């Protein structure tokens, strides 16, 4: 196993690339090339990829190496459902008060990720926080297709952000979260096609 001071930044760098859609869906990840690009040895790269395989963000195929995971329609819907269940559990256990603010300077996908974490963190349940963070990481890249598939996504964000910031009644926040997830589940086939056809981006 790689030393933590090498492994952790390597893992985070590869994970950020996956969440940002740097590689095409299903593409083989060349560990040696990634090691060269990050200026590290092959060991922390392979250790990171095996960890990401366990997190289902990459797929390891014996004899073929590591590949970018394809988030199929059924898996996408299942993740949305579990994400919603956990958020509703967080809302149900949330004490009165205000959530941490979310930076408005971030890209749209990151703002939603931080907003959902803010909801989770108010629950004071570490397992809910960790689970929402992990599922959010797997859904993160799909959020980049929201504007192309759905309408008024910025207005949707503002409604949820305002409800969280102003500690709106639980019923109101639950309704907004349910609507967010239902809209995406309804278009799961379009999300799956967009993810499957993604050509990757320049590093």
From TrEMBL:
Q: Which PROSITE patterns match?
A: HTH_GNTR
Which keywords annotate this record? DNA-binding, Transcription, Transcription regulation
Organism field: Sphingopyxis macrogoltabida (Sphingomonas macrogoltabidus)
Which superkingdom is the protein from? Bacteria
Q: Where is the signal peptide?
A: none
PANTHER family with a match to the protein in the record: TRANSCRIPTIONAL REGULATOR, GNTR FAMILY (PTHR43537), UXU OPERON TRANSCRIPTIONAL REGULATOR (PTHR43537:SF5)
Protein's name according to its UniProt entry: HTH gntR-type domain-containing protein
HTH gntR-type domain location: 4-71
One MF annotation (Gene Ontology) recorded for this entry: DNA-binding transcription factor activity
């Amino acid at each position: 196993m790689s030393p933590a001071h090498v492994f952790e930044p390597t893992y985070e760098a590869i994970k950020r690339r996956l969440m940002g859609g740097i590689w095409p869906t299903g593409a083989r990840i060349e560990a040696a090339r990634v090691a060269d690009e990050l200026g590290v040895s092959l060991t922390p790269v392979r250790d990171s990829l095996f960890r990401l395989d366990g997190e289902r963000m990459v797929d390891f195929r014996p004899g073929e190496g590591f590949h970018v995971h394809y988030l199929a329609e059924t898996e996408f819907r299942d993740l949305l459902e579990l994400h919603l269940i956990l958020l509703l559990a967080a809302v149900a256990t949330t004490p009165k008060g205000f959530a941490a603010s979310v930076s408005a300077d971030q890209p749209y996908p990151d703002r939603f990720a931080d907003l959902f974490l803010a909801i989770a963190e108010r629950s004071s349940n570490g397992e809910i926080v960790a689970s929402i963070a992990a599922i959010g990481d797997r859904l993160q890249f799909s959020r980049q297709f929201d504007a192309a598939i759905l309408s008024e996504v910025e207005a949707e964000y503002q409604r949820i952000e305002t409800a969280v910031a102003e500690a709106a009644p639980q019923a109101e926040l639950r309704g907004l979260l349910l609507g967010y997830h239902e809209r995406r589940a309804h278009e799961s086939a379009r999300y799956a096609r967009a993810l499957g056809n993604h050509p990757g981006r320049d590093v």
